Every structure is written in C-alpha cells, then in structure tokens.
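Ticket #4471: structure output looks truncated?

Reporter: J.K.
Steps to reproduce: submitted the chain below (264 residues) through the standard prediction queue, then opened the result file.
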Amino acid sequence: MENFNYHRPATVAAAVAALKKSKDGKFLAGGHTLIPTMKQGLAAPKDVVDLTAIKGFSGIKVSKTAVTIKAGTTHQEVATSKEIKKAIPALAEMAGKIGGVHVRHRGTIGGSIANNDPAADYPSACMGLGATIETNKRKIEADKFFTGMFETALKKDEVITAVHFPIPKKASHQKFPNPASRYAMVGVFLSQNAKGQVRVGVTGAAPCVFRAKDIEAALAKEFSAKAAAGTKVAAKGLLSDMHASADYRAHLISVLAGRAVAAA
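Returned output as attached by the reporter:
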C-alpha cells in the first residue's frame, strides 16, 4: 500500500471540497472494496476522504409511500430495522445476506451503490424497486444511475446522501451466492406496485446491473412463477467465468425470477 493523505471531514460539503482539491482522491465509506484494492496495489489514491465522521449521514425513515435510507447506514442496520421489515421485508432480508457479520457491520448502502460492483446486491434492489438515489446536488433515478462496470452517473463533486425506495405491493429477493465470497453469481430483486407494474433487477449476471425486461413483460401479462421461470433469457452479453457460463447465468435468472414470484 502506498502512502496517502487521510481526511476525516465532519460535513458533506467539507468532504466534497477535500476530494476536489485532490488530483487522485477517493471517498471511503465501509472500505470493503477500496482498502483491499489499495493493499493489492490495484489502487493508489493520493488522498482518502473518510465519510464515517459526517454528522447525520446514517439513519432510516419510513413514510406511507417510501423507505429512505441515508448513505452511511450499514447493511446490519438495514437488515435489523423493524420499520424496513414491515415496509419492504425483501430489502431487509437481502441486506441480511450480504457477506458475513463483519462485512454487514461495516459496509454501507451508499458505498455499495457508488461502487456498483457487478455482483453487489443493493444495485439490484435499486433497479427492482425503482429507487431514487439522492446526492448532495440532485436526485437520480436508478435506471439512469448505473452506467457500467464499477461506473455510475456520479460526478467527482457528488456524494450519495440517501436512497429512496418506493414501498411496493409485493417484493422478493432471490440470490445464488458464491459459496466463498457470498457475492451474487446471480441475484434477482423483483417487485410489483399497487398498479400491477413489475420490475426485475438482476445483478451478478452481467458487467452491470440491469432490468430483465422480457421477464417483466411476461409477468405483466401473468404474474406467476410459471410465467417468470418459463421466460428464456438471452445469454449474449452476460458474464462467463470460472464460476458459471453465460448460458448458466441466463438460466439462473429465469429460475430465480420464478422463485421470487412464488415468494412474493
């Protein structure tokens, strides 16, 4: 690991100012991606701006129509929140399956979304629920936020401050995890709102989280496990590695979508 300057600001404005002054700075939230990559020599930022000391940066608020989670809220806080368990049980259940207990106590929702790892769980929840990501400058729809592998619509002077999840009529999260890392080889987050509109967010299967539009269309006609599982997903563009081929991941998407409908 190379030497770097460490900053621990108390406000979002101060954090953004510190990063803008740096030619090669990085925000630090839970650190479960940044610190390992720095140790391996894959990243060597000159400045690290720690967000954990910012006042009011974590917390959960539930209204009649939405769940708002501040960016610094840990996975464990989401998993154990009684309010979230009542409003969107699938979201709390998903958070409880992220990594191990140590990861859940340190990792944050904002860090996970900003990093946009292809196999991370929260991006699929954002896509599957139609979330809105709020930064210090604007609000961005999930469909427009995730732009590519480890890439998002965030600009250098932006930091995520909160995530707003509409409360669905039904929702479910199904995951086929890597047995070692617990990252999703394929993960599906499905929801149906009061108007019957269906969203299916998929992670782990492609370089970036995406919506399974073919499955959404099938479920719009018939909301059943059979309709979801019977929809063939194209393997083109999906990941193929030592853990699973693109064809296998395509098959898993349909299978997990069917399980998600049954669970919802």
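Triage note (M.O.): checked the attachment and the full token line is present. Residues 185 and 244 are 8 Å apart (CA to CA).
Status: closed, working as intended.
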